[in-house]
């Protein structure tokens, strides 16, 4: 089975130096995939190819699931595709070129895990498009959500159907779980 994570991240020695923020984020996302066990993982934006690889690695470890990632910049999408293929996870991930709000709603099936890493102003409209397909327990992870007040107000509003938590990490993450 392919393994893109460095051995030091999988089994750090007690004396190991703290990993970089990027490595920690990749490990956190892989752990999230392992814990949630999503069948359908959607990602809006792929600024770092290694993040897409980490997500696909988690799906491979689970032995199931599919990641569809969309990025409007063809160069980033091609870099992510090449990284996924080089790591041997091509059967678990597909990277599409185009605007996530145009492409992701067309992906069939329920949404188990939604990663938002594109333009923060698109987070609430994209969530609104995908929300009808999100079952209870679906997870939303939004990078840089602190720049999108309406999105945060929606997730955190009592009665919104989400349990949401800001995570002070890597420029700020918001993690929400759909409660109903």
What share of residues are in beta strands?
15-25%
In which order are the strands of the major sheet placed? 3-2-1-4-5-7-6
Largest sheet: 7 strands, mixed
Structural class: alpha/beta
What is the overall number of helices?
7
What share of the residues lie within helices?
25-40%
- Run of helices and strands: HHEHEHEHEHEHEE
Mean pLDDT, all residues: 89
Q: Which stretches are poorly predicted, pLDDT < 50 over at least 5 residues?
A: 4-10
Evaluate the radius of gyration: 16 Å
Structure described in brief:
The protein has 180 residues and is α/β, with parallel strands linked by helices.
Describe this structure in words.
The protein has a 7-stranded mixed β-sheet, with helices on both faces. The model is unreliable at 4-10 (pLDDT under 50). Helix 6 links the parallel strand 4 (111-116) and strand 5 (134-143). Helix 2 runs parallel beside helix 3 and helix 3 packs parallel to helix 4. The chain is built from 7 helices and 7 strands, in the order H-H-E-H-E-H-E-H-E-H-E-H-E-E. Helix content is 38%, strand content 24%. It is an alpha/beta fold and 180 residues long. The termini are far apart. The longest helix has 16 residues, at 21-36.
Keywords:
180 residues, alpha/beta, globular, 7-stranded mixed β-sheet, 7 helices
């Amino acid at each position: 089975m392919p393994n893109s994570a460095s051995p030091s991240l999988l089994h750090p020695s007690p004396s190991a130096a703290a990993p970089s923020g990027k490595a920690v984020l990749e490990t956190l996302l892989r752990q999230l995939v392992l814990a949630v066990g999503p069948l359908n993982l959607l990602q809006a934006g792929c600024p770092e190819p290694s993040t897409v690889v980490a997500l696909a690695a988690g799906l491979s470890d689970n032995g199931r699931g599919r990641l569809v990632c969309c990025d409007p910049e063809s160069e980033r999408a091609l870099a992510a595709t090449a990284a996924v293929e080089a790591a041997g996870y091509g059967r678990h991930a597909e990277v599409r070129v185009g605007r996530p709000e145009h492409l992701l709603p067309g992906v069939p099936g329920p949404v188990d895990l939604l990663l938002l890493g594109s333009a923060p102003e698109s987070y609430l409209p994209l969530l609104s498009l995908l929300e009808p397909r999100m079952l209870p327990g679906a997870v939303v992870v939004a990078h840089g959500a602190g720049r999108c007040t309406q999105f945060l107000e929606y997730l955190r509003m009592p009665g919104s159907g989400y349990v949401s938590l800001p995570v002070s990490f890597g420029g700020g993450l918001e993690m929400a779980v759909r409660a109903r």
